[in-house]
């Protein structure tokens, strides 16, 4: 069987300090790129020599140049950035019209603690949709960044003055344990359901600032049932785990949208914990609202999972089983 001939590319980098960061500790970044492309990368002084098939060599070279440009711009390079570089299409591949949202520049979300960048094309389209629409849905499996990115956009809009508050909500569905049997008052009983939302906020806001915002109710985290009767104006509102909202709860939540507010609904169709026979409000909303202008529906698959690589493989195994079952 014929194999493609190996070729060699010589890359010279002027700043040796940045090259050290590009290679990573113990050259782990180069090892990662080698594993993903099948090339061999040799370093001598400020020169990297890339050996491999023309296609693999071209891909590795493009990634190395892009990562070096990140370093020149003062940004970090590590495993997440390498993963993002391999996953993402170039801006030229993004449909015309979407580029206007970020003026053709990189899609990024600035928060108090970190700069957040989408790592897949679906994530990039989702972030654009969150800025462009007053109501957006993010639907797909766990680990695809649906809630994380939504909270990041909410924090960005809050610190830039586009909204006055952030409201994060989830249905407190009893999955195995009855709320009444858990120790503590109502806050103690409900907080475990809300913990993923606290975790996301802690990634974007300093602890003392977040605690003050929660105390002043600039940031609210509450079960879905607590939304009844409210009109949410000038707020960035996220409903997480929306597949566990009933149809009535979903309608109640969607009709809370007030002037100057934005609303994001995230969920995973495959993780419905509602009692048998109770329809999911997420499925109903998808069916009823998908043709209304200015409502964005964004979908993710296992290829968008940005957690441990095994998570994507596990999701794919369950999806295949469901398809054949």
Explain what you see.
- This protein has 325 residues and is of the alpha/beta class.
- 41% of the residues lie in helices and 16% in strands.
- The chain is built from 11 helices and 11 strands.
- The strands form 3 sheets. A 6-stranded parallel sheet has the order 8-7-9-10-6-11, sandwiched between helices. A 3-stranded antiparallel sheet has the order 1-3-2.
- Strand 2 and strand 3 form a beta hairpin.
- Helix 5 (121-132) crosses helix 6 (146-159) and helix 9 (247-254) crosses helix 10.
Quickly list its features:
single chain; 6-stranded parallel beta sheet; alpha/beta; 325 residues
| Largest beta sheet: strand ordering | 8-7-9-10-6-11
Shape summary: globular
Report the uncertain regions: 89-101, 174-179
Overall structural class, as computed from helix and strand content, comes to alpha/beta
Mean pLDDT over the residues? 83
> How is the biggest beta sheet arranged?
6 strands, parallel
Distance between the termini: 38 Å
Measured as a percent range, the helix fraction is 40-55%
Strand content: 15-25%
**How big is the Rg?**
22 Å
Number of beta strands: 11
> What is the chain-wise order of helices and strands?
EHHEEHHEEHEHEHHEEHEHEH
Number of helices: 11
